[in-house]
Design goal:
By secondary structure, the protein is an alpha+beta fold. It has two helices and five strands; from the N terminus they run ββββααβ. The protein has a five-stranded mixed sheet with strand order 1-4-3-2-5.
């Protein structure tokens, strides 16, 4: 008997992009990713919100200033989920791994089109973000 997948990836979109490189000097960025999610029990969907920040550190004040903020929303659909406890543990790691290549490519493209030195994100192991994502899930 063939088992069907517990979840499927349906779509993604970038709904917010903020860039401000006007004060940027140098090539060093601090990168940050904040994942969160919304589980909709009515239609068994999960909206993964992937918030990416690139910031620079001001040499004088040691203060961080965001130069790039990108918000991506990806939709996943579950087969058999009636509560948050029904989400398989591997979903949290795998959903981030599925979406990250789209974010990675978009960051490179948008910074290249801005005619600055593009931000090229390395391939990353996002396993460490699993617990943060689980903590930031809301049920609708």
């Amino acid at each position: 008997m063939i088992e069907t997948a517990a979840f499927s990836f349906k779509s993604y979109r970038f709904d917010k992009v903020i860039m401000d490189f006007s004060a940027f000097q140098g090539n060093e960025f601090k990168l940050n990713i904040l994942p969160s999610g919304i589980l909709n029990l009515a239609d068994k969907t999960f909206a993964l919100e992937f918030l990416f920040f690139a910031s620079m550190i001001s040499g004088k004040s040691e203060e961080e200033q965001n130069v790039l903020e990108i918000h991506c929303v990806s939709m996943f659909e579950f087969k058999n989920v009636s509560s948050i406890e029904d989400i398989p543990d591997y979903f949290y790691t795998n959903s981030l791994a599925i979406v990250f290549p789209y974010v990675r490519a978009f960051v490179s493209n948008v910074t290249l089109q801005a005619n600055i030195k593009p931000i090229v994100l390395p391939t990353m192991n996002l396993t460490g973000l699993k617990d943060l994502l689980k903590k930031n899930v809301r049920v609708k």
